[in-house]
Amino acid sequence: MFGDMMGMMGKLKETQQKVEETKKRLDSVLVDENSHDGLLKVTMTANRKLTDISIDDSLLEDKEQLEDYLVLTINRVIAKATQIQESELAAVAKEGMPNIPGLDLFME
């Protein structure tokens, strides 16, 4: 029993390390989102760090339109980045979980 507990603790520590490595890797995964007409492009990492915004000159003429574009496009890129991050981290966490029958039902 004690050996099983030590094995589980080792597995948890290994999983925690893999989660941290995955988080670091996600800093280099870039996610792009464009406005519906392509006049605005927003790029961020899968860890939701904004890295670039590209604005077509025509949007600079209408402040309100530009603000709307920014809000909509940034929210969409955040949603994409969040989905990628959650999916990657869930896969690592699930891989490191002990094999307990029925536990996988709670992980979905």
Structural account:
Binds to DNA and alters its conformation. May be involved in regulation of gene expression, nucleoid organization and DNA protection. This protein has 108 residues and is an alpha+beta fold. The chain has a domain of 71 residues: Nucleoid-associated protein YbaB-like domain (Ybab, Chain: A, 2-Layer Sandwich), CATH 3.30.1310.10. The chain has two helices and three strands.
CATH superfamily of the domain at 26-96, by name, is: Nucleoid-associated protein YbaB-like domain
Q: Helix amount, in percent?
A: 40-55%
CATH C-level name of the domain at 26-96: Alpha Beta
What is the general shape?
rod-shaped
Uncertain regions spanning at least 5 consecutive residues: none
Oligomer: single chain
Separate helix tally:
2
Q: Mean pLDDT, rounded to whole units?
A: 85
Could you give a short account of the major beta sheet? 3 strands, antiparallel
Total strands: the figure is: 3
- The fold-level CATH name of the domain at 26-96 is Ybab, Chain: A
Q: Tell me the fraction of residues in β-strands, as a range.
A: 15-25%
Element-by-element helix/strand order: HEEEH
Task: Kindly report how far apart the N and C termini lie.
Answer: 29 Å
Question: Mind telling me the C-alpha Rg?
Answer: 20 Å
Looking at the overall shape, the CATH architecture of the domain at 26-96 is 2-Layer Sandwich
Structural class of the secondary elements? Answer: alpha+beta
Strand order in space, largest sheet: 1-2-3
